[in-house]
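G., the chain you wanted modeled:
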Amino acid sequence: MENTFAFIGAGNMGGAIIEAVCRAVEPKNVAVYDRCAEKVQAIAEKTGCAPASDALSAVRDARYIFLCVKPQVEKRAVAEIAPALTGDKVIVSIAAGTPIASVKAMLSESGVTLPVVRLMPNTPVAVGRGLILMAKDETVSDADVQALCAALAPGGMVEPIDESLIDAATPIFSCSPAYIYMFIEALADGGVMDGVPRDKAQRFAAQAVLGSAAMVLETGKHPGELKDAVCSPAGSTIVGVETLERAGFRGAVASAVYNAYVKTTQLGK
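Predicted structure as tokens:
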């Protein structure tokens, strides 16, 4: 039971975490249940995890139970598996906007008291380039934190964080892949307008974003400094920068992050 995992929910985000965990542990020790049997079958064929026919059987023999469901259905999911929540188990929730205290209250309503870990991942976890923020309550042991970090490591960076910062950080890294995909698509569209074939334009744009992110992380320099280094006097890059500034590029991105944060704080209510 020490290194066994159960997942309730196998959607986009849950599926990404399942793939990561199955790269770290024996897939047969990862049980998965979702109301959509097709999702379970697909992830089982892809990873070798153990499909479960119902939620109770999925969690019964697991040590770490991941609740990968929408915030509005998490309470129902907890009530459904409560009869099997006995012994030495740890609950791991990825529901956006749902604090640890709320998860513990759901458990308490079903007569259950267990340690709770809160995760906030992003979808690049599926390809090993993601970020997973992790917060925990005071009853979660260091050994359990280490075990979870090791299991999640194939998904990318696992970052312990104070829970008070999770909602504010979520739009920066968890919502933002959608914005970045839009940016890559827009760069590729521009390339196509210039005459570059679509497949090449998309690949060039994606590689530029990947390389630029690596420059920020590996050099430690401020993004503005790196931007200035690309902008030669009277060059083409500064003209493009001015065009984006005139269109309100920075303000639009900052507003997207803030508005997504406001929505995130409402999800768990």
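DSSP finds eleven helices and eight strands in the chain.

Shout if anything looks off.
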